[in-house]
Amino acid sequence: MKKLLLFSIVTLVGLTFIGRMIYLQVVISEELKLEAENNSVKTVYDYPERGFIYDRNGELMVANQVAYDVMVIPKETGDFDLNKLAGLLKMDESRLEKKLKTARIWSTKQASVIIPQLTQEEYAPLQEQLRKFPGFYIQRRSLRKYQVDHSASVLGYIREVNQGKINEDDYYVQGDLAGKSGIELQYEKELRGEKGYKKYTRDHYGRAIESYKNGSSDLAPIAGTDLTVTLDKELQEYAEKLMINKRGGIVAIEPKTGEILSLITAPNYDPSLLMGRDRSKNINAILRDTVRLPDVNRVLQGQYAPGSPFKVINALIGLQEGVTTPQERFRCNHGYDYGGRKKMACHSHASPLAMSKGIAESCNAYFAQVYRRIIEKGETSSQGMDTWHDHVTSFGLGNYLGYDLPVGQPGRIPDGEYYTSRYKYKWYAPTTISNAIGQGEVAVTPIQLANMTAAIANRGYFYTPHIIKKMNGEPIDNPKYTTKNFTTIDAKHFEPVIEGMNEVYNSGTAKYVKIPEIEICGKTGTVENFAKVNGVRKQQTDHSVFIAFAPKDDPKIAIAVFIENGYWGSRYAAKIASLLIEKHIKGEITRTDLEDYLMSHSLEYEYAKKLGKEPYNINVAVDQGLITDEKERKLHQLVDSLNLKILK
Questions:
Q1: Which NCBIfam families match (predicted)?
Q2: Which domains does the chain have, with CATH numbers?
Q3: Mean pLDDT, the chain, as a whole number?
C-alpha cells in the first residue's frame, strides 16, 4: 500500500514537471514568439475604396478621394517635443495633449487617430517631418467626394465610429469611418467593403522599413459595392432649387415600380460640409440650428395633417361602401352645419355638386356628408370607424411603409378604440367630422402621401417605395419591392375620383398651374396650422399641400409636396408639383412664370412670425447690440457661412 502511494506521488510529480516543460517550451515559447513578432512587425490596415453611388441614369453622385489620418501608438512615442509636434500638426498644444491622453486611455499598444481626414495639400508637409517623432505615422484612407451639392438628407454622410459601434461590430476599430445617416447608413455593410492589411518589419525606432515576408502575410482589401439609386439627379437638383427659403418636403415616385424619383427635405445643406477637417465644426452648427432644423428629414419624419388631398380617400371609401355614387349631388351652404351651432366652413362655389366637382372645388360640405355616411353605416360609431380605418390604412397610411431608408414615422389613422378611449361619453360621426377633410386626428408623412397618390394612379395598388435600383450594376432582387400591395377599394371606383382630380387642373383649384400637353390629376390642400407663441397656442399661416400624378392614363410620376406656412395649396405646393412633373416628363420647363414666382419668393418671414420673431441679418444684429455673447456671435456667423440662416 505504501509502495503504491509512493509510486503515485512520484508519477504525479513527474507528470507535473513534464506538463510544465511542455507549457514553457510550446505555449510560452509561442506567446513569446508572437510578442516578439508583434514588436518587430507593424500591421497597417489597408482600407478599401467605398462603393460609388450613381443616380438612375448612371450619373455619378458620390465618389471617393484620398485622405490621410495622423495616427499614434502611445507605447512607441517615448519622449518628444510636444510644442514642436503641435506646431507641425497646426494644433493647439493643449488640444494635442488631450488627444494623446485619450489615445492612452483607449490603448497604449493600438493605434489611435490624432487628426483625421487630411487633404493631400495638408498631408504633404507632414510626410517627412513626422518620421522624426517615433510612434506617429500617416494612414491613408478613402474619403467621400460628393459630385453634387444637394441631397445630403438622402445620401447621408460618414463619420468616425464611436465606442458603441466598435463594441457592436468587431469589424471597426477606433478611427474607422461608417455611414451615419441616409443611404450611407442603411447600406453601410455593402458600401464599406472589407479591410485588408499590410505587414512591415520595424527598426529599433519602431519605424516600418520593409515588407514583412515579402508580403506573403498581407491581405488585399475588397472594394465596396457600387450602388445605383432610383433618384433622378437632375430632378433632385431642380427640386432643391425650388425649395430655397422654404421648409417642407417633396417626394416623387414612379407608380409602376415604387422607385423614388426625388426625395427632398428643406432646408438642406451641401453634403461636402460634413467631410474634411472642418466636419465636426459644421456638424455642430447644423445640429444646433434649432430653428430651421436642417438635420430633420421632414418627408420621412414629419407627421402632418394631410388636409384636402385626404378627401379623395374618403370619396373612394364612400364608393366602396356604397353610401354614395359619382352622380349624387350634395348641397353646400358655404359649409357644413353639425352639432347645433358648429359649422365646417367652405369657400364659395356652385351648389349642389356631384363627386367630380366636389373634388375639383374641394368642397368641405360634400366630403363631410360622405364621411358621416361611412361612419354611420356601422352598427355603432366605433364599428363604422374601424371599417373606415381599414380602408385608409390599405393605402399605406398610418403605418411604417418599410422603405429602404433608416428613419421614418408611422403617422396616425384613428380607429374606433382610439375615440372610445379618448371620450368618456358616447361619440358619433360628427365628433370626428374633421377627418372628412384631412384635419382632426389624422396625421401622415409626405412619403405616405406620395405613396397614396401612386396607389390612386395605379387604380388600386402600390409597390413599397424604395431608393436602391442596382448593386454593382445588377438589379436588386427583393420581393418586398416587386410585390403589389392592393388597397381595399375595387378598381372600378377609381375612375370617377381620377376624373375629379383631372378636373382640379381643368377648372378647379389648380387651373392656373396647368402644364401644356400633359394631362395631370391632382388635389390641392390647405392645412390649418397651430403653434405655441410665448406659451400661447395660436393659429399660424396655413401649410400648402398638393398631390398629383401624370400623365392621367399612363402615370410616370406621382408626387406629394408639403410646404410649411405656405398659405394655400395652389400658392406654393401646386406650382412646385407642376414644374417637377413637366421637368420629369418633358425634360424642360415652359411655365417659366411659375418658376420665376417660386425662385423670387421667400417664406422666411412666415417662419419667423410663427415663432413671434423677426428675420435678421447677423451683421446688423451685432452692430445693433442684439448679439453680444462672443460664442453666440461665432455660432451664428458659422451657420450663416453654411447658408443656414437663423431667425432670432
A1: pbp2_mrdA
A2: 43-229 (3.90.1310.10), 233-610 (3.40.710.10)
A3: 84
